[in-house]
Design brief:
heterodimer; A: about 280 residues; mainly alpha; 2 domains; 2 strands; elongated; B: about 260 residues; 11 helices; about 80% helix
Chain lengths: ~280, ~260
C-alpha cells in the first residue's frame, strides 16, 4: 500500500507564495544569528525549513535537508538572493527525484557566494549607499529634513528591488540558467566594471570628505611662505590623497581596521599638538 | 537639556533596532544604522529633529565609506548615531565637540558586534541538534528568538544607563576641554573618513580599476564637481567601456574561429 502510493506520487512543487515567504524570511533574518562559526548558515536553514516541510513528508528527509542547509555560508545578503532562489529550485528538483547530491547543492552555494559578495559589496556598499549618503548628508548639512528622508526612501527601493528580483530570477532560472550565466563570464565582467565605477565614486568621496591641511609657514624677510599654499600649487588635495593612499596601503597589507583607526587617532593627536596639521 | 526617562528608553530601544533585523537585515544596516538616519530619529525623540539630523550628518562623515566585509566591523556608526547624538544634544555640544564624542562611542559599540558573533554560536549548536531531529520550526526559533533576546539585553540596558548618567559626565569632560583639544578632534574627524574609504576600496578595487579612484579624486579637486555628477560621468564611462570590451572580445573570437 505504501509502495503504490510512492510510485504514483505527484510532483512536489513549491508554490510561488512559499518562495516569496522564504524571501521575506531571508530578507529579515539572514544575519539574525550571525556568528564566527558558520556566519549566515543558520539564516539559510531558517528560510529553507518551511520549504523542506512542504517538499518532504519523512522526518529523515527533512533532517537531512536541514543539515545540508546549515553549512557555512556567507555572502552579501541582497545580491546573495540570487543564490537562494537557485538553492530553492535545486531542493525542489531533488525532492522530485533529480540526481542532485548534498555536495552539488553545497558547491553551488559556496561557488556563488564569493562572486555575489563581490558584486554586492561593490554595488551596494561601494556605489549606491555612498552616493545616496553623500546626497543626503549634503542636504542635511543645509538643514533640510529632505536629506535623511530621501536617503531612506531611495536606499529602501534599491535594496528591496535588487533582493527580490535576484531571488525570483534565481528560482525561475534554476541551476542551469545560473551556470550558463557564470560560464558566459557576464558576471565576472559586470563585477569588474562595477569595481571601476565604485573606485571612481570612492575617489570623489575621498576628495570631498577627507580633509587634512598644514598650518606650517616660513618667514623669510617680509614675506611669509605658507606650506599649504605651496602644496595646493603642486597638487590640490595632496595631503588628503596621500593620507588615503597610506591607509589603503596598510589595509591592503591586511592590517586590522581597528589598529589602523587607533593609529590614525594617535597621528591626529600628535600632529595637531605639534602644529603640523 | 534634561532628558526624561521615556526619552532615554526610546533612544535605547532605537539603538537595539539599529542592530536588530526587524527592518530587514541589509535594509537596517544601510539606513537606521547610519548616523544620518539614527541622528534624525534621536532628534525627533528629543524634540529637536533638525539639530539631531545636523549632528548625525556630521558624525556620518566618519563612516561614509563604511563597509562590512567578511564579518569584521570598523567601529559602530549606530551607537555614535543614537547615543552619541543624544548625549551631544543633551550636553549642548557643538558639532566639533560632537565629533570628538563620536569617535570613542563608535569604538565602544564594536563590542556589541563581537559579543554577538561569539555568543551566537551557542544557538547554532542548539539548532544543529534540532536539525538532526528534523524539527524545522525549532531551527527557525533558534535563528530568531534567542539571539535577539541576547542582542536586546546587550544593546538596550547599557544605552539606557549611559543616557541616565552620560549628560552629567560629558558636561564635566567638555568643561575641561580647551580650544587646542577641540582642534585635535577636528583634525582626527577630517582624517577618519580615509579609513572607511580605504576599506571599501580594498573590497572593490581589482586590477587597473584603481586608476579610476585617482580619476574620481581629481575630478572633484580640479573640476570642483560634487559626488553625484562625478558618479553620473563615471557611470556613463563604465557603460561605454563595458560595451567596448564586449565588442572587442567578440571580434577577437571571430578572428580566432
Amino acid at each position: 500500500m505504501v509502495n503504490t502510493n510512492e510510485v504514483v506520487q505527484e510532483p512536489r512543487r513549491v508554490a510561488r507564495r512559499d518562495v516569496i515567504k522564504a524571501f521575506w524570511n531571508w530578507f529579515f533574518f539572514a544575519q539574525s544569528s550571525y556568528n564566527y562559526e558558520r556566519l549566515q548558515g543558520m539564516g539559510v536553514a531558517c528560510y529553507m525549513a518551511p520549504i523542506l516541510n512542504k517538499l518532504y513528508t519523512k522526518k529523515e528527509d527533512i533532517a537531512a535537508g536541514l543539515k545540508r542547509q546549515m553549512a557555512f555560508f556567507n555572502t552579501e545578503p541582497s545580491f546573495g538572493c540570487l543564490i537562494h532562489g537557485v538553492n530553492i529550485a535545486m531542493e525542489e528538483q531533488k525532492a522530485n527525484g533529480a540526481p542532485i547530491g548534498d555536495e552539488e547543492i553545497n558547491s553551488l552555494k559556496t561557488g556563488l557566494m564569493g562572486p555575489m559578495a563581490g558584486l554586492g559589496d561593490s554595488i551596494i556598499q561601494g556605489v549606491i549607499t555612498p552616493i545616496l549618503l553623500a546626497i543626503g548628508i549634503g542636504l542635511a548639512q543645509k538643514g533640510s529634513l529632505v536629506g535623511p528622508a530621501l536617503f531612506f526612501v531611495l536606499e529602501t527601493i534599491a535594496i528591496v528591488a535588487i533582493s527580490f528580483a535576484g531571488w525570483m530570477q534565481g528560482y525561475s532560472r534554476g541551476r542551469e540558467g545560473i551556470t550558463d550565466l557564470l560560464r558566459s563570464g557576464v558576471l565576472r565582467k559586470v563585477l569588474e566594471y562595477a569595481g571601476i565605477l565604485g573606485c571612481g565614486v570612492l575617489g570623489a568621496l575621498a576628495a570631498q570628505f577627507v580633509s587634512l591641511s598644514t598650518p606650517i609657514s616660513m618667514v623669510s624677510g617680509t614675506t611669509t611662505l605658507k606650506l599649504q599654499d605651496m602644496l595646493d600649487k603642486v597638487l590640490p588635495g595632496l595631503l588628503p590623497l596621500a593620507l588615503t593612499l597610506v591607509v589603503f596601503y596598510f589595509v591592503r597589507k591586511g592590517k586590522n581596521a581597528n589598529a589602523i583607526l587607533v593609529a590614525l587617532i594617535v597621528a591626529g593627536i600628535v600632529g595637531a599638538m605639534l602644529k603640523i596639521f | 537639556m534634561q532628558i526624561g526617562l521615556w526619552q532615554a528608553i526610546a533612544v535605547a530601544l532605537l539603538y537595539y533596532i539599529c542592530q536588530s533585523p526587524w527592518l530587514g537585515c541589509m535594509l537596517t544596516f544601510c539606513t537606521v544604522y547610519r548616523p544620518l538616519i539614527g541622528g534624525t530619529l534621536v532628534g525627533i525623540i528629543l524634540g529637536q529633529p533638525v539639530l539631531g539630523m545636523t549632528i548625525g550628518a556630521t558624525m556620518n562623515l566618519l563612516y561614509l565609506g563604511f563597509i562590512s566585509a567578511g564579518g569584521s566591523m570598523p567601529g559602530d556608526p549606530a551607537l555614535a548615531g543614537t547615543l552619541g547624538v543624544a548625549l551631544a544634544i543633551a550636553s549642548k555640544l557643538t558639532t566639533a565637540e560632537a565629533l570628538a564624542l563620536a569617535v570613542p562611542v563608535g569604538l565602544i559599540g564594536n563590542l556589541v558586534w563581537y559579543a554577538g558573533m561569539t555568543v551566537n554560536t551557542i544557538w547554532l549548536h542548539q539548532a544543529d541538534k534540532y536539525a538532526e531531529a528534523g524539527d524545522g520550526r525549532k531551527v527557525m526559533f533558534m535563528n530568531i528568538v534567542p539571539p535577539q533576546i541576547f542582542l536586546f539585553i546587550i544593546c538596550f540596558f547599557p544605552v539606557l544607563l549611559a543616557m541616565r548618567v552620560g549628560p552629567a559626565v560629558i558636561g564635566k569632560i567638555m568643561e575641561n576641554l580647551s580650544g587646542q583639544t577641540l582642534h585635535v578632534f577636528t583634525v582626527i574627524g577630517g582624517m577618519l573618513p580615509a579609513l572607511g574609504i580605504a576599506l571599501n576600496l580594498k573590497a572593490i578595487a581589482k586590477g587597473s580599476a584603481f586608476v579610476f579612484f585617482i580619476l574620481g579624486f581629481f575630478m572633484v579637486m580640479y573640476l570642483k564637481l560634487d559626488v553625484l555628477p562625478v558618479s553620473i560621468f563615471m557611470g556613463i564611462a563604465t557603460i561605454v567601456l563595458y560595451n567596448l570590451s564586449r565588442t572587442s572580445t567578440s571580434r577577437g573570437g571571430d578572428s580566432n574561429g
